């Protein structure tokens, strides 16, 4: 085997180790340190589900360490006290993320209310953005059609061939019909956009 091949294999092996390490849920040092309570607190504060502990178990077993679920669970419950409130729920709802089931029991009520309010904001904002994008798109098509009609009219003015002239006139008429349809659609979208803005305004003021 050449030196180049050997180096390539070593590089590939090293890359694989880095990849496996990056996929690990917890480092070897953290496993050996065994501060499961603090890890639970941090996960709880982040709104991470307690089922994350199974990943720690799997990764730490490879290092000969058995994680303490009881300590982790105690820390996780404590961390959730900081996470499961109205502001965190609202922030999650506004982000468009799915509901976080980490909050349960007495902790869930405020978080759920916040999430529902945030979700209403997200849905209303998404509607405004969607309609705004549709309006921009159809306005661009209107301008493109206007340009095409202008160019077509210039060609008609200079065209002497009757068949070619008739073809250009037909194309121009078709472009005008499409342009009229675009204007009708634009008007409909603008009405919907205004209505969506009106629905979004009170929700946005509450933030």
Descriptive report:
This protein is mainly alpha-helical. It folds into 2 domains: 26-117, no CATH class; 120-205, Up-down Bundle (Methane Monooxygenase Hydroxylase, Chain G, domain 1), CATH 1.20.58. The protein contains 8 helices and no strands. The protein has helices at 3-23, 28-33, 36-45, 53-61, 69-83, 86-95, 108-158, 162-205. α6 (86-95) runs parallel beside α7 (108-158) and α7 (108-158) packs antiparallel against α8 (162-205). The longest helix has 51 residues, at 108-158. 16% of the residues are buried.
Provide the descriptors you would attach to this structure in a database record.
mainly alpha, disordered N terminus, 207 residues, 2 domains, 80% helix, Methane Monooxygenase Hydroxylase, Chain G, domain 1
Extract low-pLDDT stretches: 3-8, 10-22
Mean pLDDT: 89
Count of individual helical segments? 8
**Alpha carbon gyration radius:** 31 Å
What's the number of structural domains? 2
Q: What is the strand tally? A: 0
> What profile does the largest beta sheet have?
none
Q: Could you tell me how far the N terminus lies from the C terminus, measured between alpha carbons in angstroms?
A: 66 Å
How helix-rich are the residues, as a percent range? over 70%
Class from secondary-structure proportions:
mainly alpha
Strand content: under 5%
């Amino acid at each position: 085997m050449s030196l180049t091949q050997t180096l390539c294999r070593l590089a590939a092996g090293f890359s694989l180790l880095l990849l496996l390490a990056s996929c690990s849920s917890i480092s070897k040092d953290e496993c050996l340190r065994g501060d499961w309570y603090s890890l639970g607190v941090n996960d709880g504060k982040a709104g991470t589900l307690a089922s994350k502990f199974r990943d720690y178990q799997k990764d730490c077993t490879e290092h000969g360490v058995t994680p303490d679920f009881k300590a982790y669970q105690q820390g996780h419950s404590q961390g959730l006290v900081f996470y499961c409130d109205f502001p965190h729920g609202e922030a999650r709802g506004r982000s468009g993320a799915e509901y976080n089931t980490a909050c349960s029991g007495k902790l869930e009520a405020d978080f759920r209310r916040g999430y529902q309010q945030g979700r209403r904001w997200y849905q209303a904002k998404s509607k405004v953005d969607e309609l705004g994008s549709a309006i921009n798109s159809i306005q661009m098509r209107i301008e493109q059609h206007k340009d095409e009609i202008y160019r077509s009219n210039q060609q008609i003015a200079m065209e002497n061939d009757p068949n070619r002239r008739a073809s250009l006139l037909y194309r121009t008429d078709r472009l005008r019909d499409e342009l009229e349809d675009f204007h009708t659609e634009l008007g409909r979208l603008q009405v919907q956009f205004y209505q969506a803005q009106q629905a979004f305004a009170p929700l946005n003021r509450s933030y």
